[in-house]
Amino acid sequence: MITRREALETILSNAERAGWAGADPYDGLHSLVGRLAIPFGPPARLAVTHAVLRSGRIRAIVHPSPSVNPKGLALFLGAVANSRATLGEEQAHALSKSLVAALRECAASTDDGLGWGYPFPWQSRWFWAPAGTPNVVVTATAGWHLLAAADAFGSVEARAMAEAAGRFLTTGLRWTPAGGGRIAVSYTPRDSTRIINVSGLVARVLARLGDRVRAEGLAEFITCAQEPSGGWPYAQDVRGRWQDSFHTGFLLESLLCLRALGIVVPQETFRRGFAAYRRFFAADGGARLYPSDSSSYDAHSAAQGMATYAALAMTKGGALLADEEPLERAELIADWALRRLWIPEDGYFAYRITNSVRDERLYLRWVQAWMAWGLSVTDAAMVAGDASRRTACAADRPASGVVDRVEVA
After folding, report:
1. 239 CA to centre of own chain
2. Which of 211, 267, 301, 404 has its CA 20 to 30 A from that of 16?
3. Which residues contact 363 (CB under 8 A, 6 or more apart)?
4. What per-residue confidence (pLDDT) applies to 96?
5. How far apart are CA 29 and CA 37, in angstroms?
6. Where does 38-117 have alpha helices with state H?
7. Residues lower than pLDDT 70 in the chain
8. Which of 144, 149, 264 is nearest to 215 (CA)?
9. Within 10 Å of residue 173's Cβ, how many Cβ atoms?
10. 207, 258 contact by CB (below 8 A)
11. What's 337's DSSP letter?
12. What digits encode the pLDDT tens for the residues 272-303?
């Protein structure tokens, strides 16, 4: 079986060779058929998008154009920042510069800073977003990983871009009070939605940039939206009551980041949240999209599972928040993905497994970029855990006239 590091290196190499461009599950409108459907409004747009999403045969006929997705660029950038030891400083630094430049090229400059959106037009249940419309998810993801690159490589440009992303998040979107000091933020400048997982993505960026007031208000909104089952719906209105694996993972990872940045998040929120999150994973690490034994196994859910449990492993007292060993869980999910989703002859991860049939469509942002990030953060957690254990062992040794050399990874 291929190793995590070999898979990561293969994904990065293939993506760079393709100019960071590829297909996306939701790019159906980025095609001739899609352009013809757009004037007919939301029903026609959704019909084309979901037909291309669900059917490989229809996708082959409609043939959406490959595109460079800023969210994919950001995830690859985060993976590179995590993997300097694996890739080597020279290669990692070169890849980082290339990805930062690509993010700069596709950024939307506004009066409020820098924003990023999807490179294809798309229709949600709530609003319409033409191609390139800056949105909260892509901008927050870009800002977070630009900060990681700034820290890892000393990139002044990456930090400036992250700060510009922070300005867009605070002044370029619609913020609404949610009662009791809680606040919510819209998905784009064009809507007034209160989608729960985006609050976590924004909160961690703003907390890292020093805006504690907004970060705390968003954290309160998230914790109050948690359901008795321990999970969170996608949104609080009737059109968004479902729960899925990767959005739940987004929230838990974001809350862990907020906790590390000094924002108070009740321990009970984590205990209930991780108890609910476990429902999405099989005993062998298989990552399901929904909390049902009949649900599809999903690469995006596996990648976020690695990232969430790795973040928990790097949290002080993390195992107590989930009543399990988080690094073992992250590795279990990674090993399952390498066994069941990796396509060795082509060098990429499959999209899903449904009813024992593997869907091998190649999606760059939705699968490969996410898997690169998940694999990189799992390895980073392993290195951090090894260093912590070695340091602890050294501290526990009795003082003597002989000092053993302790190498910290």
Report:
1. 23
2. 301
3. 22, 23, 24, 25, 351
4. 97
5. 8
6. 42-54, 56-62, 70-82, 84-87, 89-105
7. 386-409
8. 264
9. 23
10. yes
11. H
12. 999 999 999 999 999 999 999 999 999 999 99
Place of tokens 């461009």: 21
Token duo for residue 299: 């690469």
Percentages (nearest 5) of helix, strand, coil residues in the chain: 60, 10, 30
Q: Output the CA torsion 264→159→95→82 (10° steps).
A: -20
**Nearest residue to 327 (alpha-carbon basis) of 370, 271, 389:** 389
Tokens of 188: 């784009």
Contact 195, 176 (CB under 8 A): no
**In this structure, what DSSP letter does residue 366 have?**
I
CA distance readout (Å), 144 to 204, 207, 285? 8, 11, 27
Q: In angstroms, what CA-CA distances link 163 with 74, 157, 187, 317? A: 15, 10, 19, 31
Instruction: Give the C-alpha separation, 237 to 42, whole Å.
Output: 19
Which residues sit opposite 73 in a β-bridge? Answer: none
- C-beta of residue 203 within 8 angstroms of C-beta of residue 214: yes
| Tens-digit pLDDT profile for residues 105-140 | 999 998 889 999 999 999 999 999 999 999 999 999
Is the entire prediction scored with pTM above 0.85?
A: yes
Reported residue count of the chain is 409
CB 385 within 8 A of CB 330: no
Instruction: Please report, as a single letter, which amino acid is at residue 347.
Output: G
Tokens of 168: 């867009």
117, two tokens: 């959106």
Tell me how far apart the alpha carbons of residues 377 and 27 are, in angstroms, rounded to a whole number.
28
Residue 108 pairs with which residues in a beta bridge?
A: 115
Q: Any bridge partners for residue 357, and if so which?
A: 354
Per-residue pLDDT, 404:
30
Structure tokens, 18? 């393709």
Distance CA(6)–CA(176), nearest Å, equals 45
Domains recognised in the chain with CATH numbers: 4-27+65-396 (1.50.10.10), 28-64 (no CATH)
339 sits in the region (left: phi over 0; alpha: psi -120 to 50; else beta) called alpha
Could you read off the pLDDT of 195-245 as tens digits, one per residue?
Answer: 999 999 999 999 999 999 999 999 999 999 999 999 999 998 888 889 999
